[in-house]
Design brief:
701 residues, alpha/beta, 28 strands, six-stranded antiparallel sheet, Rossmann fold, six-stranded mixed sheet, flat, Dna Ligase, domain 1, 4 domains
Length: 701
């Protein structure tokens, strides 16, 4: 079955009424034996049908010699036999009408070209089934005692009840995540590992969990995204359902991307593009396992503030500074407490620092009602959406904890709509009691800040309306090969982008006439489809202000081109009006192998070359999203009139960027990239103009 099937088609895979085990083993620790042993131990209510031609009984169950000999058509099957036998088993199951198969077998596309060909045979044999794997560890659905998985991680304990789902390409990491969550008493009753993703992908699992009424939070791990469109559909399903997705997407580096391809035959894609796509759908990308679990645990509280603010109460000025630094780095707002509230708190403890963070000092712990008063004021008067209490080892002291818990419980009861985190050093039993009280507990307050900040990112994403799709452009008439600058600009102008006025001239006399017509000063550039980066050969002359300079410049450019790129096709010299007074920007398009055309925007010059101050966005998008992109770069103040400059025409800039994104989609898969550098953002009301353009096309028409 293709991935175009709905997410509900994973039902037979995740919750079957019966399951066959092809390659079943009587040994409960072998690959073909562990699933049976685990399902028997956990009381799987469905029928388990072992298949092994050498045995009539396996682990107390009747065994059958073949799929054809089974007394019924299994809803799902585990395939734990090698190579070609796995392909034959899947074909037998498909003929019988089985709904899903879980293929443990390795040696497919993750190995070599021969393995990829064998995987293609496996996929073809599946005919109508959902296929998990091959080269996968399996899955579990602990809600129904269903454990078609051969991981030894279950020897350390069973999944705890809860509402967290795990979707992972890697079996080892997926079960590592489950085991780590179990150690933190987090309930992950569903974990699906997808392996090579011949059919079922991480996107499918995310989509199924998004539609599952018993799942609140989704933890995901991916090495590469196999089906970009399916992935986007799944993320949007989760966003619409207000279900946070926390993702560990590895392959950030070139080395990591290569490792991902060899491990699961995945396309890692461009990591910056992945970041942009995840941010678009409100997915929070975790950098470490601890960070992922911190955010997931906080998300189980199901409070996602649209406008997140942080209020902190601390017994330590140093702890408060650490919290404030962490919040500032993330952009999590920490507004000061109201002046009236600060004055009241100073009356209670004159040497307190009640701004925010609110330092009540250790003195307040001599009278725990003071801690309650300070915290109540922080919550009620400050009105913060997120509240972090840093009480360190004092909060873990046996002489203090009972009274402190009582004070905090009363505050939470009065204000149940806030997110609460507590940073204490306490024995495990006391930490558990704080968690039962409703706090997420951290030793490190900076980790708490990261988790609290993520809840606001989810809230903003859930509240954001889905933008209306921008108007589509008709497919442009692309040339047979990569065009020169002038032809590239003609394509863009036909799509509605403003370009600087220019002429292509084949003689010095034509160039002089063009300069006089366009108006002085002018820019001269070599015109050649084979010299796309003209400045590298000295192929651009600026500030040409009189006739003889045009003549000599024309001759110089032609000579340089012939000398440095002798095989280049030379169309002449492009004469363009030189526009001054604008802010230089860069716009571009790159075709990502996973997500298709992606737009880039930034300021030109040092901002892009050294500071890499750019933003990315999947195409197409409208002018509102383009404005958001423009405002997101660090250098945006330069477009809004910083240091006495006139504000630039941001409206025209946004219109051009949105139009470029529509052109990229309309151009189709032959478009490799577009580079508009510079785009001149003129003063407000005077427009934005493309001054240089490179369009790279693939193949021939």
């Amino acid at each position: 079955m293709t991935a175009a099937a709905g997410f509900a088609s994973l039902g037979p895979l995740l919750a079957p009424a019966s399951v066959a085990v092809i390659g079943a083993s009587a040994d409960p620790v072998r690959i073909g034996g562990r699933p049976i042993a685990n399902m028997l131990a956990r009381g799987f209510g469905g029928r388990i049908l072992p298949v092994n031609p050498k045995r009539s009984e396996i682990q107390g169950l009747p065994a059958y010699p073949s799929v054809a000999a089974l007394p019924e058509v299994p809803a799902a099957a585990i395939v734990a036999v090698p190579g070609a036998a796995a392909v034959a088993a899947v074909a037998d199951l498909a003929r019988a009408g089985t709904g899903a198969a879980i293929v443990f077998t390795a040696g497919f596309a993750e190995v070599n070209a021969a393995g990829a060909a064998l995987q293609a045979e496996l996929t073809a044999a599946a005919r109508g089934m959902r296929l998990l794997g091959p080269n996968c560890l399996g899955l579990f659905n602990a809600r129904i005692g269903y454990f078609p998985i051969f991981s030894s991680s279950l020897e350390g304990g069973w999944p705890l009840p809860g509402r967290i789902g795990i979707a992972s390409q890697s079996g080892a990491y997926g079960t590592h995540l489950f085991a780590a969550a179990r150690e933190r008493r987090m309930g992950t009753p569903i974990c699906v590992t997808t392996g090579n993703e011949a059919d079922v992908t991480v996107a499918d699992v995310i989509g199924w969990l998004a539609e599952d009424a018993d799942t609140d939070v989704i933890a995901a791990y991916a090495e590469g995204i196999r089906d970009g469109a399916r992935f986007l559909t799944a993320l949007e399903a989760a966003r619409r359902a207000h279900k946070p997705v926390v993702m560990m997407k590895v392959g950030r580096s070139a080395q990591g991307a290569a490792a991902a391809r060899s491990h699961t035959a995945s396309i890692a894609g461009d990591d910056a593009v992945t970041d942009a796509v995840l941010a678009e759908f409100g997915v929070v990308r975790a950098r470490t396992t601890d960070e992922l679990l911190d955010i997931v645990q906080m998300a189980t509280r199901r409070i996602y503030p649209v406008r997140n603010t942080l209020g902190a109460i601390t017994i330590s000025g140093g702890g408060g500074v650490l919290i404030a630094d962490a919040a500032a780095e993330l952009g999590l707002a920490m507004p000061p407490m109201p002046e009236e509230a600060q004055a009241r708190l100073r009356q209670l403890v004159p040497f307190a620092a009640p701004q925010n963070p609110v330092d009540c000092t250790a003195q307040a712990f001599n009278d725990l009602s003071l801690v309650g008063s300070f915290t109540e004021s922080l919550v009620a008067d400050g009105g913060y959406a997120s509240v972090l209490a840093f009480f360190s080892q004092v909060g873990g002291a046996a002489s203090i904890a009972p009274g402190l818990r009582a004070q905090l419980a009363a505050i939470r009861a009065r204000h149940p709509d806030r997110l609460y985190a507590l940073s204490v050093l306490a024995p495990p039993a006391l930490v558990r009691r704080y968690e039962e009280d409703g706090y997420v507990v951290f030793e490190d307050p900076a980790r708490a800040v990261v988790a609290l900040h993520a809840m606001g990112r989810f809230g903003a994403a859930f509240a954001r309306p889905q933008p209306a799709p921008p108007a589509a452009l008709p497919p442009p008439a692309l040339p047979a090969a990569t065009p020169d600058e002038a032809a590239a600009k003609r394509l863009l102008a036909a799509a509605g982008l403003a370009v600087v006025a220019e002429r292509v001239c084949t003689t010095p006399e034509e160039a002089v006439a063009a300069a006089a017509e366009l108006g002085w000063p002018v820019v001269l550039k070599i015109a050649s489809p084979d010299i796309l980066h003209k400045s590298e050969i000295g192929g651009v002359l600026l500030g040409i202000g009189e006739t003889e300079a045009v003549r000599s410049g024309f001759a110089a450019l032609m000579a340089r081109a012939r000398a440095q790129v002798p095989a280049a096709r030379i169309g002449g010299v492009l004469v363009a009006r030189q526009m001054d007074g604008g802010v230089e920007c860069i716009m571009g398009i790159k075709r990502d192998p996973v997500f298709g055309p992606v737009a880039l925007f930034g300021l030109g010059g040092v901002f892009v070359e050294v500071l890499h101050d750019v933003v990315l966005r999947r195409c197409p998008f409208g002018e509102d999203e383009a404005r958001t992109m423009i405002g997101a770069i660090r250098g945006a103040p330069l477009l809004h009139g910083a240091r006495g400059r006139r504000p630039a025409d941001v409206a025209a800039l946004a219109a051009m960027l949105a139009r470029l994104s529509a052109f990229a989609v309309a151009a189709g898969p032959r478009l490799v990239s577009i580079d508009l550098n510079p785009v001149l953002a003129m003063p407000a009301g005077e427009g934005a103009y493309c001054a240089d353009a490179v369009i790279e096309l693939e193949g021939t028409a």
